[in-house]
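User: I want to check something. If I give you two sequences, will you return the structure for each one separately, not as a complex?

Assistant: Yes, each is folded on its own. Here is the first sequence with its structure:
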Amino acid sequence: MDTYLNPSAPLAERVADLISRLTLDEKIDQMGYTAAAIPRLNIPAYNYWNECLHGVARNGRATVFPQAIGMAATWNPALIQRVACAISDEARAKYHEALRNKGFSDWYQGLTFWSPNINIFRDPRWGRGQETWGEDPHLTGEMGAAFVRGLQGDDPRYLKVSACAKHFAVHSGPESSRHTYDAIPSAHDLHETYLPAFRKLVVEAGVESVMGAYNRVYGEPCCASQLLLTDILRTDWGFEGHVVSDCGAITDFHANHKVTADEAESAALAVRRGCDLACDGVIGNLREAVQRGLITEAEIDASLARTLRTRFKLGMFDPQEQVPYASIPLTVVGSEAHRALAREAAVQSIVLLKNQGNLLPLGAQTRSMAVVGPNAASLDPLLGNYAGQNERMVTLLEGIIAAAPPDTRIDYRAAVPLAQPIRNISGWTGGEGVSFDVTVLCAGLSPLLEGEEGDAILAPGGDREEIGLPAHQVDYIKRMHAFGGKVVLVLNAGSALDISEVEPLVDAILYLWYPGQEGGSALGDVLFGKAVPSGKLPVSFPRLADLPAFDDYDMSRRTYRYAEAEPVFPFGYGLSYTHFTYRDLELTQTGLQVRAAFTLANTGTLRAAEVAQVYLGALDCPFPTPRWRLVHFERRELAPGESCRVEVVLGPEQLALVDDLGQRVAPPGRMRIAIGGSSPSARTPAPLVGTF
């Protein structure tokens, strides 16, 4: 048996044997995302490009989970790992079905997934922020790592699927200049904000792939950066997987960044600097690059070995009966179990921002209700970008109807459009509207208004200029308020909204993000008290006037960690239908280790979950540091009247600070600690605070 086909042979020997059998042209044909077939070696064509941001995407039927920013709002890594496991089950089933039907996998049918997106959501104007896990490096790292573990599985030999940490690095808009801009963060910001989540996924979660970003960092294109790909990723972090370019990013070298003269130079530079796989047709110019002496065949071999290693780990060259994931049946795709999991994730993602007079949950006294708004009966606000499809999508209106008591009178009108001025004000803003016990207004944004460059058709470029509700939605809410009546504002968005103008005008606010196929069911559960909201904001909600320029990558004034202005809603914020109290903080310090213990109690009347959050801040530091930074969180579910003692041990990894040179150092002075149900803010109850 040829060594490369021998499952018992060491992985490195199998890879080397296969490469030794390839001609230079065959090797180059394997360097792009559309790897060509090699019939003489019985190797089928393979397309590396696949997506599973919140479910298997762009490949027909799949379970659609909440968009990544919504999953971040659960603050529940264990749940997210279960979600990712379900996604990879469906991915494996669909891949093997494609093999059975066609003998090969096509675009969006492979096992190499370019997810998750772990860029830091530093500015709410970025349309792709919905793909991220929020503005905090620690939360992003914990949630992203759980997602990777669920995708890749725990088999000691085979990957379930290959996950990808993207976009490396210092990348978060604007979309309109992503192909040209040069990010020059301070060393502190690079190592304190932009790199920690990537390090977490590489060093601790073992992510198989990393995608380079479009932009430059310190003058070097990210997909050909000596600093990022060699010095940090491979040398400092010991990364052994493969690096893939973002799509068209290598063409940007000569076309936009102007760091190379032509296609051959760009292809050679990318591979020589550590980019192994090109989502870019320009990689075919490696033939010319070898002829011109810009790159050697040995350098191509070393790069190709890393992508082939991934394919071997996925079991692509082994008998299928030896690959444990090859037997996952197609019946898992969109199964009832996965539907239930999507509903659970959507419920946990909902954030209760306001509940004046405990209007929610709606009880038996609610005999009639109006459901209005542009998002009530639309599928778009369920999906978010990079979504799959499912034949049973539950709109918000459908979920409300299904959950309401059967004798409740419900009426629906769109009443106000998503993004156009109001031309005909409905009578429901007047006397007719107040004839209902409560009005549920389903408003906000949709992926038509924010997203990736080219995807958000109502927002050229994908980004937002404003961060409030569309003006005509604000006007509609004002008119409703003028006529009285109870109003529950249900908001969809993939980012923060400045709703300070309308918050006083409504009685309750539920933030749903883009909640996936079960979004309507989840809303019904929370509205009528079948579930208690427990989501927490993974981003702070600032005012536009308090933000620096969108294209400024300095972290000062950004996110809860550095902003001095009080936000509309703070990072980590989220109310419940019950009440939680924190008390009895005890700190014990031994060198560079601090033990914090406190009591968390449910002093309300309903069983519910609370996410306890631990923040640190430096008091005597000689260099700039975050005002507060999240270092630990955990979710606890408690019955009414129940309490628990929570103990957190913080060691050097949590206590270390990043200095002006980007080095992690021991804290030089006093530290303060804050523990509570959100980041410290004027809006939230005073946290437990101590110093050491």
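And separately, the second sequence with its own structure:
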Amino acid sequence: MRLALLLTALALPAMAATISPQPADPYLWLEDQYGAKALDWARHENARSLAVLQKDPRYQPFFDAALAIENAQDRVPVPAQLNGQIFNFWQDATHVRGLWRRTDLAGYRKPQPDWTTVLDLDALARAEHANWIWEGAGCEEPDEKRCMLSLSDGGEDAVTEREFDVTKSGFVPDGFTLPRSKMATDWENADTLLVATDWGPGSMTDSGYPYIVKRLKRGDKLTDAQEVFAGTKEDTWVNPMVAVDGQGNRVALLQEGLDFFRQAYYRVLPTAVERLALPEKSAVLGLVDNELVIQVNEDWKTGATTIPAGSLAVLDMGQRNAVPQAIFIPGPRQSLEGAAVTHDRIVASILDNVRGRILAFTHKNGKWESKPLDLPDDSTTGIVSTTLANNEIFLSVTGFLTPGSLWYANLDTDTKPEMIKQSPPRFDASRDVVEQFEATSKDGTKVPYFVVHPKDMKLDGSAPTLLYAYGGFQVSMLPRYNGVLGKLWLERGGVYVLANIRGGGEFGPAWHEAALKTKRQNAYDDFAAVAKDLIARKITSPRRLGIEGGSNGGLLMGVEFEQHPDLWHAVVIQVPLLDMLRFEQIDAGASWVGEYGSVSNPEQRAFLEKISPYANLKAGVKYPMPFIYTTTKDDRVGPQHARKFAAKMEAMGLPFLYYEAIEGGHSAGANAKEKAEEMALTMVYLTRQLMD
């Protein structure tokens, strides 16, 4: 343990008697993720909590409603353009694990598309006696005939990859097959893969990801693969990525994760690799006209040119010392959410004061010109699918009270985007309205938040209110339609609040960096400020206010639970980080040092000790009773944090409810039934705490 080594190195003989060892953690045994004793403990806590929540008369109606929405046949089938057709992965009550299927554009436009099954995952799981969960397909471009399918055991991040022929709807005999591992692969060409996987002892980083990339040729055994690049165990990961454009240009890259946000990019040449002069905080998003498309997350200085953080830039790969060109520079309340490439265009998703915009870029006379696409205002917009074969794109439009819709646009024409599909309403939104407010944080920063509430809401502090936030990893929290939330919460008079606290990406890299590492208290102060603002506006009161968050948001919930126990009456802590003094040693925790800091740094350790929910839980404090939810198969955050926190609460005689799903990975369930169960349990808990 790095902390122990540091203390040993610094301790002088004369000081030895004054150094107190850290007290032993009595719940380390719960870190044994699949250990029999730990699983028995989890099952016991599950039974105790389910006896409360599932026996509530509201549970079954909530579950039935959630499952009906999750399995609804009239959902919009999300399209993916592949091999000249429209592919879709679909799950419902009959196809629990899912169908991979295809049709053409004309067939997709029909109210009931004419689908052809490409792969039946339920049938495959039955035939192989496996618990397969779909994790996606990586297809060789530009032909898109062969794909590496990623299949997970029960929803964990580790996958098995197998080569699949989409033109024949079957696995390739004697094709590429990669055994279970956390891995990354891409196609160097139709007969060669670049593979980062577990090559044996010592080949994985401290974060649990591969750092060695090898070239695997068709027909060779995995042991025959030739090394292309090796990072270090201290890296977060090393990933291969091959960028291809519609003109036939191809650039093979390696991404060496120096930490979660900083990476070095290398170009793979026939016999060597060459580092590219990209800023460490940047992301390569594609290739167009042999120009790399790059999201810039720190100022990029090249000679007399500076491209500001948050910009979208291009870099000509045909010139040895090309100067990057900024094609989008955000304004003060704007941010770049992401971008995708088509045959010869770039499509970018922009936030303007947390409202979505889509820009299309065209290369003319050596410059990139942008044009906004005509989509509904005051909505969340997103890029769903693009293809290198043409300039046809699919976009999404949604909002808190507007069912998600799918839009089609052909960038070769001047016609406006066309809505071609929309999900029907899942709840009665006619009685609700959305407002956006700002709270003032402890340091004076203005923090925006959305409130979805009944039009006739009385401002007397009586409204049952659920406040949600994430606040990390430059992830933006945007208005989205949630049928289950609407049916089980809004339709029953509840208020929903989404807070855009620092740590997210709503206003670009600076908004994220304002809550990095030892500055993270800013995010916690932002969240508390939103809660206090809700109370000051008399929308709600501590008795009727509940909070919810997962993963990094689960850490947020744990901190708020302890720092402001008097502000809420319900706290939903989902798949959380909670032991911030040991997070680097649990599953993929070491990969997040760039976000949280490290206990090996004295200043950062002092801050982590100050805010760690597991370290700061105290007996005798009147905390609200939380609902702690996690999954056994989570190999990213891991169930260890939630288990230990709950066990410590139990030892202190503090009330809590705990549920650990055996399947599902780092998400709420591996299928519709498990998702509906989690949502029903959560809504019963919130109803009991805030509405009763």
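Because they were folded independently, the notes below concern the second chain alone. The longest strand covers residues 356-364. The first helix runs from residue 2 to 10.
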